[in-house]
Amino acid sequence: MLEQLRELTTTASFNRWAGFEVIRVEDGECELRMVWRPDDMGQYAGFLHAGMIAALLDTACGFAATTTSGLSVLSSQFAMNCLAPAVGEEFVAIGRVVKAGRKQIFTSGELFAFSDGERKVVATATTLLVPGG
Amino acid sequence: MLEQLRELTTTASFNRWAGFEVIRVEDGECELRMVWRPDDMGQYAGFLHAGMIAALLDTACGFAATTTSGLSVLSSQFAMNCLAPAVGEEFVAIGRVVKAGRKQIFTSGELFAFSDGERKVVATATTLLVPGG
Amino acid sequence: MLEQLRELTTTASFNRWAGFEVIRVEDGECELRMVWRPDDMGQYAGFLHAGMIAALLDTACGFAATTTSGLSVLSSQFAMNCLAPAVGEEFVAIGRVVKAGRKQIFTSGELFAFSDGERKVVATATTLLVPGG
Amino acid sequence: MLEQLRELTTTASFNRWAGFEVIRVEDGECELRMVWRPDDMGQYAGFLHAGMIAALLDTACGFAATTTSGLSVLSSQFAMNCLAPAVGEEFVAIGRVVKAGRKQIFTSGELFAFSDGERKVVATATTLLVPGG
Predict the structure, then answer these.
(1) What is the tens place of the pLDDT at every residue in A9-31?
(2) CB contact under 8 A, C130 and A76
């Protein structure tokens, strides 16, 4: 599964640009790493842009969904809570399948910022995906 | 206000990379344009990446919020519905303030794809922001 | 359609208890009225309970969805923003279909409080439903 | 804290009507029980009404928030996912504080249905509250 998702992520031009790296895959779970780049990933105050936060969470959740429901899934609903400014040298998103149904897949995710060796949750999300997109 | 937001968007490195262009600002409303780039904005099926959809909607909503509540606002909750595959040569996000309170600002947004001269809604969102971030 | 939804709402014991009244139905739209009862609908501060706000919005959106997608629809995702304390003698929820797909129906809704002849938006919502429940 | 929340819940007329019972309170966490009544809590198919699901989740989350942020909190954003039909003799909602800030409190909740001695998750939610409402 790890190899399959590593291959899948290279087919997405945005994932390549952002440098998303699949670091762990289990049944119903996926972990994604990204190195912070101040020159093209920041919002106006210098934190990680909300779009990048969403991209990490949505992708980790989508990849988690592929482990239960096949490679072709599409997000239809995405909700996130930004708990703290997303500041760090590196970010890791963990996506988990909450329930994989025939018509819909429910997932949840957490985004961690790593700064000076400390890990901190900066955002959480839930997504709803449709299989066989 | 248009000049102020055009300046603000240049301070965000992600917005510069994505080429976000503020094309209209009114009291409580903001319109943002982005040209599609297949080489670094796509998901695995070649549509606009969900992170980019979120970035456009969140930014348009945030800019709308600045018109009522000052330049320093931070998103705390973001929810979006992806209604149709985001395919087009150009995308326009419109953000609107629904209610601007002292503690919280509620906004909503729509994302339109332009393809062969046709306009189509591809996603909607609501965001909740905190002023004086 | 009005008669059909008036009949449908009597089959739901909660709707009967709450006194939900279908006052308008159009293609893709439904309007629902409820009279405020302080003795069994309030939260601790005396406003309309968040559960009742959700019930009105979810039901109006669900009824709107039946006009495009058949009587058997089930909510799978519901999100609401509470803009102002829900205070009034009467409440009216309007649900609208945003997009009716084969697999999913997207709707949005608004809740109005009527107080001394004045109408005020107190909450908004979006819901995602699955047809053929 | 248990006594305080048991007293608080009696001040809400809806909670009294629904028979919400606070069965466990800890720092940042609250558990709420409700017995199913087919005669005034059902939707059209006979499951627990989405408004009741929302009421249980929102109340458990709100009570959890009071343990960290004082008795006067107001929900401003509520999102729920309905994972399975809410069928059971009894329902238990667990609310947890995810982050308690000065301006906003983020919580999450789960709703369990108990049927023939079996426990099943039927819905999840996140809420965002404002302290000092």
Answers:
(1) 999 999 999 999 999 999 999 99
(2) no
CB proximity B104 to D under 8 Å: yes
pLDDT tens for each residue of B51-103: 999 999 999 999 999 999 998 899 999 999 999 999 999 999 999 999 999 99
Tokens linked to A64: 């988690």
Residue A30 C-alpha, separation from nearest chain B C-alpha, in angstroms: 17
Instruction: Identify the sign of the CA torsion C84, C43, C76, A67.
Output: positive
CB contact under 8 A, A124 and D126: yes
Number of domains comprising chain B:
1
Task: Name residue C76's amino acid.
Answer: S
Taking CB atoms and an 8 Å limit, are D81 and A124 in contact across chains?
A: no
Q: What is the CATH number of the domain that holds D9?
A: 3.10.129.10
For residue B38, the enclosing domain spans 2-131
Q: Which chains touch C (3 or more CB pairs under 8 A)?
A: A, B, D
A128 touches chain C (CB under 8 A): yes
Nearest-Å Rg of the Cα atoms of chain C is 14
Is the Cα torsion angle B66, B68, B70, B72 positive or negative in sign?
negative
Residue D3 distance to chain B (closest CA, Å) = 31
Q: Does D75 touch chain A (CB under 8 A)?
A: no
Residue stretches of chain A with pLDDT short of 70: 133
What pLDDT score does D113 carry?
A: 98
Relative to beta strand D29-35, strand D105-115 is unpaired
Report how far residue B122's alpha carbon sits from residue B102's, in angstroms, rounded to the nearest whole number.
32
Q: How confident is the model at residue D133 (pLDDT cuts 50, 70, 90)?
A: low
Residue C133 pLDDT exceeds 70: no
Amino acid at A38: P
C-alpha C112/C-alpha C95 separation (Å) is 12
Tokens standing for residue C115: 């107080």
Q: What is the pTM of this model?
A: 0.96
CA A82 to chain centre: 14
The pLDDT value given to residue D28: 98
**Residue C48 has which token pair?**
């309309």
Nearest CA in chain B to D128: B77
Question: In this complex, which of B12, B40, B49 lies closest to A43 when CB atoms are compared?
Answer: B12
Mutation for C interface: A74, A76, A102, most C CBs within 10 A: A76
Closest residue in chain B to residue D129, using alpha carbons only = B104
